[in-house]
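Researcher: I'm preparing a figure for a lab meeting and need a structural model of a single chain. I don't have an experimental structure, so a prediction will have to do for now. The sequence is pasted below. Please return the structure as tokens so I can convert it later.
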Amino acid sequence: MKSFNYHAPKDVKDATKLASSSSAFLAGGMTTIPSMKLGLASYKDVIDIKNIKKLSGIKVSGKTVTIGATTKHAEVAASKDVKKAIPALAKLAGNIGDAQVRNRGTIGGSISNNDPSACYPSACMALNAVIHTSKRKIDADKFFTGMFETALKSGELVEAVEFEIPEKADYQKHPNPASRYAIIGVFLAKHKKDVNVAVTGAKSCVYIDKDLSKKLSSNFSVSAIEGMEVKSSGMNSDMHASAEYRANLVSLYTKKAVEAC
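Model: Understood. Here is the structure written out token by token.
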């Protein structure tokens, strides 16, 4: 690991002032630290934001759940407010990685890294989330732009994620037995006017399956999607699962999510 300057700013303003194209924000460090240790990434400045109070916490209003960027997965999983408002979100958080990851990893770090197999991006897409940053607000469908890529600009910091409370929702995951990342993850959310079926792990970036979403918006039942073929074109194919297998899992876990609602 190469040497770097360590900073622990007291607020968001100071944190963003320290940011540059050769810096990294650090909260849980679940991706940043291993990347630095392995020589996959190096930074001139590491900006530790975990003690900035504004960035942590959970707030529930009548229509939304807002989670601060440095809120840990374990905190979301254990939150009575989240369990009441969006049980599927607490379920998702409780099945990320292992206990060590859940007690260090943060929601802001997860979505900023945008691993193609991460769980939180699917919740953001399905729940029409709005990502609050130090500069603006970004709709989830515009935030995730590609493999490990987001709409965040240099020095821009995620402050919170605001989720829309659905009528019903569920998250189903087929985890890698070692890493617990999603080989396939399906977050299904039924809103007043439509249904969102968000998929992670299948392609290079999280996405909404428009065909499944459209069918379930018209008829929210397993029978509505029975026999539907999910196309494997463009899906990941690796040592863990072929594209065809992933396509089958998307169909299977969407049905499971509907049944769980």
